[in-house]
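Hi Q.,

Before the meeting this afternoon, I wanted you to have the adenosine-5'-diphosphate prediction in hand. No need to reply - just skim if you have a minute. The sequence and ligand are here:
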Amino acid sequence: MILKDPAKDSIKDPFVPLTIPGALEKNRNGDQKSLLGNQKNLLKGEKASLKNQENSLRMEVKNLDAWYSSGQVLERINLPIFENEILALIGPSGCGKSTFLRCLNRLNDLIKSFRLQGQIKLDDFDIYDPGIDLAILRRKVGMVFQHPNPFPMSIFDNVAFGVREINRRIKRTELAEIVEESLRQASLWDEVKDKLNVSGLSLSGGQQQRLCIARALAVRPEIIMLDEPCSSLDPVSTAHIEELLLMLRADYTIIIVTHNLAQARRISHRMAFFLSGRLIEHGNTAEMSIRPQCEETENYLCGRFG
Amino acid sequence: MENTNRKSVEIKKIRGVLPSSEALFSSTKSQARWYRIQEKIIENMLLLATIISSTAIFFIILFVAKEALSSLKHNGLAFFIAGGWDQHIQEAWFSETPKWDFGALPLILGTFLTTGGALLLTFVLGTGCAIFLAELAPDAIRRPVEAMVRLLAGIPSVIFGLIGLMVVVPFIMDNFISNELALKFIAVAPLDGQSLLAGVIVLTFMVLPFYVTVATDAIRAVPKPYKEASLALGVTQWRSVTKVLIPVAIPGIVTGMILASARAVGEAIALSMVSGGMAFIPDPSHGLVFFLEPVRVMASAIIDNKEAMSVKAIESALFGVGTILLFISILLSLTARLVFSWYQKQVMAK
Amino acid sequence: MLFTGISLSKKRLVVLAIIAGLVLSAAAFLTTNQAHAAKLSGELHISGSNTVFPLSHALAKEFMKRNKNVKITVTGPGTNVGIQDLLAGKVPLAGASRPLKPEEKAQGLKAYVIAREALVIVVHPKNKVKGLTMEQVMNIYLGKITNWKDVGGADAPIMAYSRPPASGTFDYFNELFLKKQPQAPTVKMLETHGLNREAVVKNPNAIAYLAFAYVNKKVKPVALNGVVPNKKTIEKGQYPVIRPLFHVTKGEPTGLTKEFLKWVLSPAGQNVVKKEYLPAKKK
Ligand SMILES: Nc1ncnc2c1ncn2[C@@H]1O[C@H](COP(=O)(O)OP(=O)(O)O)[C@@H](O)[C@H]1O
Ligand SMILES: [Mg+2]
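Predicted structure with the ligand bound:
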C-alpha cells in the first residue's frame, strides 16, 4: 500500500515532482492563495499529523445557499466534515444532495445558471476564493458519479488518465504500479488484470462503477465524494463497494450520497438528512438512527416518505 | 387515505379512455393484414429508393468513365503525370487534325495543393472555433457567431469568389508581391495575387462553416459525464477538452473534415476566380513564392474549358478530369467509412 | 458584369406572370375585351456569347417592356456553348461573337449581324502608357515583351490577361492580333470579360482586351495604332478593330424568335443597340 504512509514513501511517490512548482506558480502571491496550492505540506505533513487526532475538521460549509434557474435548491446549509469519517447524505430525491456535493468540488461552476452564496472551507481556505486553483481543489476532493461514466478508453487508460495529466513524464512502471494499486483498492483488479487493454465500456455496470472509483483513487484525493454510487448496481456489486469504502476510510474522508438507509447505517459514521434544500439534521449515525431530533427525520427514517 | 382515494379516481378517469383488454383481440384480421401490407410497402419503397440512387451513381460513373476512355487510352499514365494542360487545350482547339495529347498533372496537383492547404487551415482554425463555440463561449457571443457560421455555409461560391477577388487577391498582391519580385518571375508566371495562397484562403472560408458546424455539434454531443469526470479528476478545462472531448468527438470531426474536403475538391467557380486561371505547377524551389504562384484545379478546368467541349479530344480529356474527381470523392466516402469502423473497433469496443 | 447567367429579376417575372394570368382569364371569361390581349406571348431563351450577352440582355429587356406576355431569359456561357445548344435544339437563338464556320453553316445555322463592336485593349488607369501598336500587343501576348518600360511605361512586369481559347472573342483576337500564333504560357486566361476587367482594375501592371461595352471608368483603353477608342472613332470606323456581333438560329426562325429578331433588326431594336454598340449596318 503506497497510500498508507505517504511520508515514508515520499521518494518513491510519483506525485512528488509535480506537487512542487508548476501548480503553485499561479498562486504565489498572497498567503491565502498560495497555501491551497501548497499541497505538499497538506498532503504529507499536516495530513499525517491530523490523522492522530480523531475528528479534526476537514471541510466546513457555512450558510450555503444555492440557486439554479429554476429557483433556490439549497438553503442555509451548515455542515462540518471531519477527517477520516464516512459521512452519509440522505434524503428524498430532488432535495439537493447532488447539488451539495457538486458545490464541494465546484463542479457546478459548469452550469451557467448556477449561483451560490455562503462559504465552503477546505482546511480553512475558502474554496470559492477567486484565486483558487480548481485543478488542485478537485484533485484533493475527488468524485464518483451516480451513473458509471468510464471514458471510452481502455481500462488501463481510464485509471491512468488523471495520473498522466498530473505528471506527464511519469515512468511507465510507476504508472502501472499506481493503476494496479488503484484497481486493487477498488477490488476490480482480479476481474480485469488480464484485459487491461479492453475498453472500459465493455465492463458490466458494477465493474464500471468500480473502475470509476479506481480512477478517482488513482490521483490520490484526500476527500472522496460518491453520489449514489450503488443506485444502478446489483446487490453483489453494492456489497463490493461497501466493503471498499470501509477499507478506504482509514486514508480518506468519504462523503457518500445514498438512498439506501440500511447502507448508510452500515457504513457511515455520521449522517446528514436533507429535505427540500434544507439540512434538517446531522449527527452520529447510530444516535440519529435511534433518536432523531426532528420529526421529519424520524418520518423519513421510518420509511414514511421519500 | 383520502389522498389515495382521490388518486385511484384519477387513475380510473384516465384508464377509462383505454379500451378493455378484450379490445386486444377485437381488431379485425383485415386490419392487422392492412398494417402488415403498409409496412411492406414502406419497406419496399425504401429499398426501391436505395436501388434507384445506387444505380444512378453507378451509371454516372459508367457514363463519365466511358466518355473519358478515349483520352485515357491515348494518353495512358501520361494523363496523370504529364503537364502542359493549357497548351494542350489551345493546340487541340486550333489544330486542323485532332490532337489527343493531354497532361492533367497541374490540375491534379492544383486540386491537392488547394484542398490540402485549405483542410490544414480549416482543421486548425475550425477545431479551435468549434471548441470555443461548444465549450467556452458565453451565450452572448456563441449565438451570433453560430448564426454567422451557418449563414456563411449558405453563401454561394460565386460570392466567395468575388470577395476573394476584391479583397484577398489585392491584399496578397499589395503585401507579398513587390514589383521586383513580379519582374523577376514574369517569365515564369505572372504574380498578380491570384495564387495558390488566395485559393487556399478562399477555400478555407468556404469549407470552414461546414466543418465548424459538424465539429461543434460533435463536441457538444459528447456526453457531459465524460467532461465532468475529467474535470473532477483535477484535469484542467483545456486538457479535458483535448484529451477527452475531442477523442470522443473524433467521428464527428472526421465527418466534418470529409465533408469539407468533398466540397473543397469539387469547388470550381470561386477557385477559377482567385487561384490564377493558369494550369501552372508551383515550384517549391522558389521558396515562399511557391504560394504566390497560380494554380488551376480540376473542377475549374472543367468549367473554364467547357466552351471547347465541341472538340472531341478536349471533351474526352475533360471527362478524364471528371473521372479523377469522381474517384476522389468515392475514395473520400470510403475513407470515411473505414475511419468509422476503425474507430468503433478501437475506442467504442462495445 | 461578372455573372454570365442573370435572368431578369424574379419579382418582375412574378408580377408578369400574375398580369398574364389575369389578362388570360379576362380573355377567357369576358369575351368582350379580347382585343386587349397581347398579340405576342411565350418564352424565349437566348444562350451564347459572353460578349453578346449584355446586348441580348438589353434587347430582351426592352422587348419585354413592349410585349408584356413575353418572357425572355438570357445567358452568356460562350459562343461555342451557344452554338452547341442551338444544334442540340436546347435554345432557338444564340449570340455569337464570331462568324459561323463552314461546317456550322452546313448544319443549317444562320447568322444575323445585329450589331458591331470594337475590341479594345485596356490597362490600369495609373499606367502611363497611352497607346500601343497592334504589333506590340501581339508581342506582349506572345511573351516577347514582358516589361512596360519597353513600350514606354514604367519598369514593371506586363501581366497579360486573355480569354479561354474556345471563346469567340479569343478567336477574333487570335486571328487579328496574334496571327494565329500560340499565346505565351504566362498569359492568364480568365473565363469572362468581367473577370478580365476586374483583373485590370486590381492590377496596375495588367493588360487585357475587352469588348467595348465592358469598358468602364476603372480601366483605361489605350490607343491602338494611334487611334483612341471612343464612341466617335468607333462610329466613324477609324478604330482598327471592329467586329460584327451575331444572333444565330438553326434554320429559318419561326414564331417568337422570328418576331424578336425582326424587332432587333428594326429601327426600334437598333436604337437599343446604339446605346452601347454600333448598329448592324454601316452608315
Ligand atoms: N442543472 C440543473 N438546472 C436546474 N435545476 C436543477 C439542475 N440540477 C438539479 N436541479 C434541481 O435542483 C434540485 C435538487 O437536485 P439534486 O441536487 O440533483 O437533488 P438530489 O441529488 O438530492 O436528488 C431539484 O429540484 C432539481 O430539479
Ligand atoms: Mg442526486
